[in-house]
Amino acid sequence: MTTARELLLTRLTGLHQELLVRDEEMRVRVPDAVHQARVTCRRLRAALGTFGPLLDPAVSEPLRAELRWTARSLGEVRDTEVVHARLQRLVEEPDVTVAGPVLRRMGSLFRARDAAAWARVVETTESDRYAGLLTSVRRVVEDPPWLHNAEVELGRIVAPLVRADRTRLEVRVARAAGTSAGRRDDALHAVRRAAKRLRYAGEAIEPAWGHDATRVVEALVRITRSLGERQDTVVSRRVLHGLAVSAGAAGECTTTYEHLRSKEEVRAGECEAAFEEAWCEVSRPELWAWLE
Which residues have a Cβ under 8 Å from the Cβ of 105 and sit 6 or more positions away? Predict the structure, then answer.
């Protein structure tokens, strides 16, 4: 593997096959298939973004938009499952006193959300738009709309593209450091998205750069995991606030919801500290020396 074209085609081909497998699994409700399909769409979108200068944007950019739509449409199932499981674990912790019909109220909320989320998955996967997405991905893999620079040697074109993604992450980290508390959730979520794109770029170039790229991916995984859990606390705190409002309107005690929300605020701070530690590792120049 010596050219950018070979590297990107290998990545796109593998992800296309993965998407087809996940599509079949989703239709028979294999556990975690929806989440994995969503991740595959994100990886495809990231590959078309990072390595976009190798492809005709008239083809790649509309496909990226459709991949984004698909990932969002599939996201509700996973989000509902994660938050429900998270809140159930919190309720079972020894220092939590359950006051009122907390579990019943939670169960009712998440049963309704789960049903709506699965309805959205079925609607998405049976739509003409989704069928068109699968066709578009296949066509890009079978007949990629290469630009002339796709034949350029790897180090001359691919390395700068990955470095651009690294710069994108650095800029977002710097922005997050300067944001107010009220806007920090959105800022750190933007950091997470940039870290994921760079992580996926690292995965794509592992066949060419081997262990050096793997070390970067492993370091970025720590960032995406810590910020991913922090984002889960953002969602769970919103849900807990809504539950507390509903419970209060029904004349029920709201102290359990308030306690759980406080615990999630503490956990958010711990996740942020873990991110900052991981960022110290990712930002070390020696981790990236091989790409310069």
Answer: 243, 246, 247, 252
Positive or negative: CA dihedral 144, 146, 151, 157 = negative
> 143 — alpha (psi -120 to 50), left (phi > 0) or beta?
beta
pTM value is 0.93
Domains annotated for the chain, with CATH where assigned, are: 4-291 (1.40.20.10)
CA–CA dist 164, 284 (Å, integer):
16
CA terminus-to-terminus distance, the chain: 19
Average pLDDT over residues 123-143: 97
pLDDT greater than 80 at residue 149: no
pLDDT digits (tens, 9 = 90+) for 173-206: 999 998 888 899 999 999 999 999 999 999 999 9
HEC per residue, 159-216: HHHHHHHHHHHHHHHHHHHCCCHHHHHHHHHHHHHHHHHHHHHHHHHHHHHCHHHHHH
